[in-house]
Amino acid sequence: MTLLAADMVGAGEWQPQTTVEYAKTRVQFDHPIGFFQAVKHPLVDLMLQIDQARALMYAAACAIDHQADESDSMEAGKYARMAKASASDMASCAARISVQLHGGIGFTWDCFVHLYAKRQKHSQVFMGDAAFQRQFARDIVMGKPSS
Q1: 64-83 confidence digits (pLDDT tens)
Q2: Cα 87 from Cα 2, distance rounded (Å)
């Protein structure tokens, strides 16, 4: 689960970097499209989501690395589920924003954005979406048996 979250975070970091580079070169109304707030604000929101997902993924990896007994294993599982939930939300946002801001070229073979968007959509639901992961983490915290 933590590895999947790490993969999603890595792909999520690539998407805004590529979109920012595109926004610097694509000109509309005599300005690069990165000049406009309608492009800047979604990218900043995405970067904040990426930072949150990365922090949770690091916490999950650290918990796995330092687990010594079964109670530590439960903590590692909880952190892994939290990381996957956050990464799933971020992946959905990253896929939507990167394709949207690339416009029509976002779904052509001239740009790899569509490949990352499809990969993020697959990873988002693989092994359970964000709602499923949050419910499972809640059950771990509340001490309920998993079904």
Answers
A1: 888 767 666 778 888 999 99
A2: 10
Nearest residue to 50 via CA among 2, 79, 23, 83: 83
Q: Which two tokens stand for residue 79?
A: 């952190």
Q: What ranges make up the beta strands (E) of the chain?
A: 27-28, 31-32
What is the tens place of the pLDDT at every residue in 43-63?
A: 999 999 999 999 999 999 999
Q: Distance (Å, rounded) from C-alpha 39 to C-alpha 100? A: 10
**pTM of the shown model:** 0.82
pLDDT at 52: 95
Q: Provide the residue count of the chain.
A: 147
Residue 32: strand pairing partners: 27
Locate the domains of the chain by residue range.
2-22+37-142
Question: What homologous superfamily is domain 2-22+37-142 in, according to CATH?
Answer: Butyryl-CoA Dehydrogenase, subunit A, domain 3 (1.20.140.10)
Tokens of 74: 């439960």
Amino acid identity, position 106: G
